[in-house]
Design goal:
The protein is of the alpha+beta class and 1001 residues long. The protein folds into 5 domains: 396 residues, Glycosyltransferase; 205 residues, Jelly Rolls; 94 residues, Immunoglobulin-like (Sandwich); 99 residues, no CATH class; 129 residues, no CATH class. Helices cover 22% and strands 26% of the residues. A hairpin with a 7-residue loop joins strand 31 and strand 32. Helix 3 packs parallel to helix 5, helix 4 runs parallel beside helix 6 and helix 6 runs parallel beside helix 9. 53% of the residues are buried.
């Protein structure tokens, strides 16, 4: 795969951050800052939108989500803050919840398992509530208790102190342990193995029963002694391990107590876990198998507080939920200033203030687990999201309370890490995202500690040889880096602010290199990012496309757009939003998917459903009874839907850049002047958009820049009755003195375009994704068509597009198929829904299309803007790359070189042709143009020309051998290419008819 020039660029690391002392935290709501504080000369785009009044399909979805989800999300899921309050209330103690693993077997439904009083100390109590159909294992990740001993080197036996005095009937115990020395290895008891029990101090041998259970008598009180050898245990799970019982890094104990009905309501107490052997301990309480052995307690429960019914900290990322939600609520409040939404957000902030620790801690962990100092978790990642949400709310409302919570938290983190690395235990690619929170806080407070710390994280802790930074710097792909997950994008978002505040170009170049590479290698046809949560370097791979991944890609893209300022990047924001993001929202407008795949088909996603089902189903392991609706994706939903407000209409301080097209009324500012832009349109059903200016306090001169999408070649803008054909892939500027009531009409050309899958092997039949404007057309089982349906390019060119409003959809495309039947396709966002049924529909976006373009090479941009077509007119003779041009568009072509021949003449009829360095060009008029190429042999004898007609329209040059050699063509992602066409002559001469394309209205 070829690399872009930027990826091949080796940038020299130069310069240091130069900052000047500035005032401390601002005490008032900050003003929008298009200029950087330190006069680096770098500016960024800023959204000053205070209302969008979205209507139509998008407006309905966003407003319903505010109504059905965001207003009540916290009210019905209070533990997302309650868990923080609990962590700050138990001090140095951990809750037992913190060490409980996932309850895959549903043990909590029939056992109460908790820390309970036991004499003058504590024990782990198992109280049977009811008899289950079968008894399962409960994971207990004891290594999360900082007081536990995880190095069992030299141990010969594991002793478990059991008190079942209350139990009137026999029971049995199964114990498994997991070590993490090399990979993950889990060791289970062997059926028939010999173990020992101490009952009344007497050591008695017993046999392990079927299923790995140790039988124990009624009322047993003593020790279960398990020899730590291969005669007693076998390795039944191995993930990257060495298969050896190393006993040096223990992580988890997995227990099952199988009882009988008389045990219901009775408690079995586990007093502690100990090891016996060459362990540098004390004399054992009972005679060990060898008198030389000593005894050491490896885990008691004195530093554990009882669980509170929740198991939140099973998830390393549980603490992110409230921050993600608050960020999305802030964005959506800018779209729709809903007072109930504001009240809900203010309640969160009030409760966060009460929950926050006196030192500023805002996480869900306790003891050494805080900030991942001694235990692997994502605590800094969780704080990052909380700080971002608080800062976004402050920027929106001026809430000093929100700012105070955020800076108090950051100050604690700063004081904790100012003399140490952020490469703390576990979660490296997540925890370093705190750099972005520092950078954002700096732009609000101007506290230079924050920007210095943000840069330190990037320059000190992100410089590993195979990390994302060095990979981008030295031209290697993002997906080959050691941190090629979606979470890393939040860390990379720091680079834009560092570039702005320092002027150091390297930061922008690295950010740009990462973005460009991800776009070409890991963004799917719907604009979704990653496969199975990772960057794998292949956008065609079928797999999980997680909602969180797409939200992160959109957030990163928006941050990049602020500094890149091109239509190309804005096009990607639109594609992701209209397809992947809106497609993640389920029918009820409340819940979202975890997986929004390219093709939605049950049984194609491993252990996941493979269709658009609720995230609560696909990732049910994240369920928490204190926040039953929440998981990582559900928490991110509001941000994904609201992110549009950050790019819909932005300003650089002088001009307005209008990127969002859709029925709306956008209230914003240009300079210091309020203005409203009303859009009257059915876009994307049609490309006609009427803009009207209002709410200006007085006439004002400014520039309004209209995004002309890369795919919208031949579009027109009408101002004051004058219509102009505009260039696709660029902003069209309108500079004038604006008055209330001024109108502009934009007619975007909505011809279909393609992304042809590289798996297509036939020049006639391609596997392709087909787009109408920004919308990915989708074949859904609800509306007809099957996996074997064959389409044609002509069918798509003549498709009938209608609104899908009455069906709750965005749009329909009625397309004639190869067999003459008609299939109704639907927009991707509306595909895969339940439509009132018990199961979601099946859908496909990779379609079989006769006459679709061939695949653009992987190093070409904007694959989804391809309208190339290729035809072999006679075998081994002439290949034509055909496309259509609009009147006024420049056509360029380069005749092919033929061995033993030279070009004699180029005839384009009445059209004036110019030539420069072997490249010919003319301006397309109102009629088709036929180009006649005549070749002569070395003696000057002309060949007879061959008439060839090419009429199908397209916009790009093939990646395969074209009819005319390529020169300066192609699209570029957002770049404007003229396109090259002609005939590759194997022998003789040729004539090519270049068709004038009519504008569609």
């Amino acid at each position: 795969m070829k690399q872009s020039k930027l990826l091949r660029r080796i940038i020299t690391l130069t310069g240091a951050l130069v900052v000047a002392a500035t005032a401390c935290r601002a005490g008032v709501k900050p003003q929008v800052k298009a200029q950087n504080t330190y006069d680096s000369g770098v500016t960024h785009m800023e959204s000053n939108i205070s209302e969008m009044n979205l209507k139509g399909y998008v407006g309905t979805n966003v407003k319903n989500n505010i109504k059905f989800w965001q207003r009540t999300a916290y009210k019905n899921n209070k533990n997302i803050v309650g868990q923080i309050a609990r962590a700050n209330s138990i001090g140095d103690y951990k809750s037992f919840s913190d060490v409980l693993g996932n309850d895959f077997a549903g043990v909590d439904s029939y056992y109460d398992i908790d820390i309970v009083p036991y004499g003058e100390s504590k024990a782990l109590g198992f109280t049977l509530k009811k008899m289950p159909s079968s008894f399962g294992d409960r994971d207990i990740t004891f290594c999360r208790d900082d007081h536990a001993v995880i190095d069992w080197s030299g141990a010969k036996e594991l002793w478990v102190n059991v008190d079942a005095s209350e139990v009137p009937s026999p029971f049995s115990l199964r114990l498994t342990f997991e070590e993490n020395y090399v990979g993950r290895e889990t060791f289970a008891l062997i059926n028939g193995a010999t173990v020992y029990i101490y009952d009344g101090g007497v050591r008695t041998a017993v046999k392990v029963e079927t299923g790995g259970f140790v039988p124990l008598p009624a009322g047993f009180k003593g020790v279960v002694a398990l020899p730590l050898n291969y005669s007693t245990f076998y390795c039944y799970f191995n993930s990257g391990g060495n298969g050896s019982m190393d006993l040096s890094v223990l992580a988890q104990i997995i227990m099952c107590i199988k009882g009988t009905a008389p045990q219901i309501g009775k408690t079995i107490y586990i007093d502690d876990f100990s090891i016996v052997g060459n362990v540098n301990g004390v004399t054992p309480p009972y005679q060990a198998m060898d008198e030389a052995y000593t005894y050491k307690t490896v885990w008691d429960f004195e530093w554990l507080a009882p669980r509170d019914g929740y198991t939140a900290s099973d998830l390393w990322w549980y603490g992110e939920f409230v921050g993600k939600l608050l960020t999305g609520m802030a964005f959506c409040y800018k779209i729709e200033p809903d007072q109930e939404l504001k009240a809900a957000a203010e309640e969160i902030i009030t409760d966060l203030e009460a929950a926050q620790g006196e030192d500023g801690y805002l996480g869900v962990f306790t003891g050494g687990a805080r900030f991942s100092i001694s235990t692997a978790n994502w605590d800094l990642w969780n704080h990052y999201h909380c700080v971002v949400g608080l800062l976004e709310w402050y920027k929106l409302t001026g809430s000093e309370k929100a700012l105070g919570i955020a800076t108090k938290t950051l100050d604690l983190i700063y004081d904790t890490f100012k003399n140490r690395s952020y490469l703390v235990a576990g979660g490296f690619e997540t925890n370093r995202s705190i750099a972005h929170a520092y950078a954002l806080a700096y732009q609000v407070t101007h506290d230079k500690r924050y920007i210095l710390e943000a840069e330190r994280i990037i320059t000190q802790d992100c410089q590993d040889g195979n990390g994302w930074y060095k990979c981008a710097l030295f031209g290697r792909h993002y997906y080959t880096s050691s941190s090629a997950r979606w979470e890393t994008l939040h860390m990379i978002m720091t680079l834009g602010i560092l570039y702005e505040e320092t002027g150091k170009r390297e930061y922008y170049d690295v950010m740009s290199a990462v973005w460009e590479d991800i776009l070409m290698t890991d963004v799917h046809n719907d604009g979704g990012f990653t496969t199975n949560e990772c960057a794998l370097g292949d956008p065609y791979l079928e797999g999980i496309i997680e909602t969180c991944c797409t939200v992160a890609w959109m957030a990163f893209t928006n941050e990049y757009y602020k500094y890149n300022k091109t239509v190309a990047v804005a096009d990607e924001l639109e594609r992701s939003y209209y397809n992947a993001m809106l497609g993640a929202l389920l029918d009820d407008d409340k819940y979202c998917t975890y997986n929004t795949p390219m093709n939605g088909e049950q049984g194609t996603a491993g252990s996941y459903d493979g269709r658009r089902v609720p995230s609560q189903q696909d990732i049910s392991f994240q369920y928490n009874p204190g926040s039953p609706d929440f998981n990582c994706c559900q928490a991110n939903l509001a941000r994904g839907l609201g992110q549009v407000v950050e790019w819909a209409c932005v300003t650089d301080g002088e001009a307005l850049y209008l990127n969002y097209y859709g029925n709306s009324s956008i209230k914003t500012t240009v300079g210091d002047s309020p203005v409203r832009i009303k859009e009257t349109t059915t876009y994307p059903v049609s490309g006609s958009v009427k803009l009207e200016i209002s709410e200006l306090a007085a006439a004002k001169e400014f520039t309004l820049k209209l995004r002309i999408p890369t795919w919208a070649k031949g579009s027109r803008v009408t101002v004051d009755g004058k219509t102009t054909v505009v260039t696709a892939g660029e902003y069209y500027p309108i500079t004038r003195v604006w008055n209330n009531g001024d109108t502009v009409t934009l007619d975007l050309n909505m011809d279909v375009h393609y992304w042809t899958n590289r798996s297509s092997t036939s020049i006639d039949l391609s596997i392709a994704s087909v787009y109408y404007g920004p919308v990915l057309l989708t074949m859904d089982s609800t509306y007809g068509g099957t996996k074997t349906t064959l389409f044609t390019a002509d069918g798509f060119e003549n498709a009938t597009i209608t609104s899908g409003t009455s069906y709750g959809c965005m749009l329909f495309a009625e397309v004639d198929t190869d067999d003459g039947s008609t299939v109704k396709l639907v927009d991707f966002a509306s595909a895969g829904k339940y439509n009132g049924k018990s199961q979601p529909s099946t859908y496909y976006t990779w379609l079989k299309v006769f006459g679709a373009p061939t695949c653009i090479e992987d190093d070409a941009h904007a694959r989804w803007n391809n309208t190339d077509k290729h035809y072999v007119l006679s075998e081994n003779d002439i290949t034509i790359a055909r496309r259509g041009w609009y009147a006024g568009e420049t056509v360029e072509f380069v005749p092919a070189a033929i061995s033993g021949k030279k070009l004699g003449s180029v005839d384009c009829g009445n059209v004036t042709v110019t030539e420069s360095n072997g490249k010919f060009s003319f301006v397309m008029g109102d009629e088709d143009v036929t180009v006649r190429l005549t070749y002569v042999d070395d003696e000057g004898t002309p060949d007879e020309p061959t008439e060839v007609s090419a009429s199908a329209p397209s916009s790009e040059v093939s990646s395969e051998k074209s009819a005319v050699d390529k020169a300066d063509g192609g699209s570029g992602c957002g770049g404007v290419g003229t396109g090259i066409a002609g005939a590759a002559i194997v022998a003789g001469a040729a004539a090519i008819t270049l068709k004038r394309r009519k504008n569609r209205t």
